[in-house]
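Why show two proteins at once? Because comparison is the fastest way to build intuition. When a single record is shown, students tend to memorize it. When two are placed side by side, the eye starts asking what differs. So, the first record is below.
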Amino acid sequence: MKKQLFFFLLLVFVLNTLKAQTIQTDVLVVGNCNAAFAAGLQSAVSGVKTTVLLQAGGFDINPITGDLNSGLQAEFLKKMKGLDTDFTKQTANDVLKKWTDSTKNLTIIRDLLWIKAEKVGNNWNFKLSDGKTIKTKILINPADQKLNGALKITAPKNNWINLDYGTTTYRTSVASGKFTTKTTGIFFSMFDLFIPLQENFIWISDSQSMLIGQAAGATAAYAAFFKTKTSLTNLKTVQGELLNYKLNLIPFDDINPSDTNWKAIQMVGLTGVLKGEIKDNKVIFSPDTQVSADEIKQTITDYFYKAQIWFDDYKNSMMTLSSTLDMICYVGNKSPENTRKEVEKKWKTGYNFKSDFDLNKVINRREFAALLQDYMPPFNVNIDNKGKVVR
């Protein structure tokens, strides 16, 4: 009996020791670059347990120049500016250390190397130089080819894409605005974060971009939070999460995230109902430009069959506030009288529009985007991985 008790206690001791040496996390980011920081922070603030394995004493942040800044990158630059000192890697790391140390759900592991990386069942396992093991459900790799080699993964170089309205891929954007090839008019598709046949692995080929890092973090958090595969990630949910954290998904240079109507303009811009103009290597939304029926007709009817009937009967070339509300109510099955009263009430105080509420006025792009997203949102319509509408 004493012998059995001894072996039982020994077993309990061994199991407890192994448990103490195992770090369980929902999302693991391996790296200390710009993208690794943003991926780890966004994953954590999106509500899942996240670990960043730096393999160094701190983050190694490269300077950011020329980008259309938004999201965590804009917040980082704001914190750096507040120091009133020149950018150095040390000051950048000091800012990020203070930021990450105060972030819930986020653990930063410094000065430890991984010595073995493998996939075991549904988990990614990392043996560390201190003998401990990290087990994670979702792995984010910011451009570490050595890690890919250890995992026997071949990863392509997934590039940023120039905004081109000749295709619908821009509707799958989860980041935009990096300055490259003399323009900020580019975006990154969520589906380029995935590698075929590699579930729960997110690949970032651009290690120097916080913009794409933030997108990767939200994407990983979705799979972890909903306990699903990365291939089943809901694009609209991820886009909505990133917009909640002020990341530009369409690179409109003239609409700042601090703008009251920024989110609505981003959402409608993602659908292509209102397109930007590529001008001087930037994408311009032109919020004060009046809306014509021709520029919105085809895309809106692509999203809503019922809109075709309304446009068949509409003969004017420009969209007035009255006709916009009429279309919204007809296609969206809403009460014309109640909708008009609601919009009039919110015109100045809710939307912060500068113009007076006038049903006969020709509506501008800012006003049209806000009303469309509020009452008849094409953003909520499902699309496939190429951005085509799915009914």
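Second record. Ask yourself what differs from the first in the token line.
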Amino acid sequence: MDCDKGEGNDCLLDLVSPMIRIISYGEILVDMLSDRILESEQKDNEQFTKFPGGAPANVAAAVAQLGGDSYFAGKISTDIFGGFLNDALIHMGVKTDYIYRTENKKTALAFVSRDASGERSFEFYRSDTADLNFDRNDFNQHWFEGDGIFHACSNTLTDADAYKTTLIGLKMAKDNDWLVSFDVNLRLNLWNDLSDALSRVWDCLAQAHIVKLSKEELVFLADGGREDVVIDRLITGQSEIVVVTDGANPLICYWKGDQLTLDPPKVEIRDSTAAGDAFVGGFLYALSAKNFTPNNLKELFHDKEELPKILSFASSCGAFAATKEGAFTSLPNQQDLNGLMLG
């Protein structure tokens, strides 16, 4: 992809073409977003507007919006909400070759309320829905030909069968020498047993080269222990990069032997629904644009300018998304990021 050279549209990354393919796998659902801020208005007669969502679907849309070679892998219902989601992915430029449609399952729904700071609370309607019925045999070996990045999140781990399917996808990607990315993205009210959450998330983290988690998720993984022990466990395992975000506070990126702290751009937060997914999408897009693979990823840590630039790009993607409502509708393109980049 080439950046336009018109006035006011500076190239944010020095891009390499062609880009590595990115597959985002997992849940896709409809976010029913509240029309009001709950701290400032009565909850009576609260109304909701539908938006496409689901963390890995958001990441796929974020990558595509930036101009990446983006695929979504998952299962979508043929109901009216499923059709809405499929059309939304296509509209964003996401390739839908790896999507299966089912008549027998419904689309998951998430009702999202917001407070005055833009923070969200969720109520999920997601029992035996289409996204949870992606079967282990639905993964296809030819998807993993050539170089690529495979991304997943924890919300496919809430169901025992979907958890096993997710592990198979992660293993297939790793066995084919793809970069594996995992965003903890924990939604505690989706879990019947939080002890399952802890063990299953760690099983997936053990497969990931790239890990993204929030400060709250780091505390959860520590399980009453020290947070630095969690970081050490990840870095001494398979993880090459661990990024811990903390909203508008500085993020910390860890790798073997060192770390980097970065302040995100200061913006007026309107809705943080897709901020984390936009960050991940920007980060994976940048790695794809530079053609990073498991074989050359360590080169990123020897360049004192490259990693901060990639993190700044990703952080700007997340900050921009927080200024807009919804998930897909908040995701930036290259032009949107002009003026937000740090440094």
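One difference worth noting in the second protein: The radius of gyration is 19 Å.
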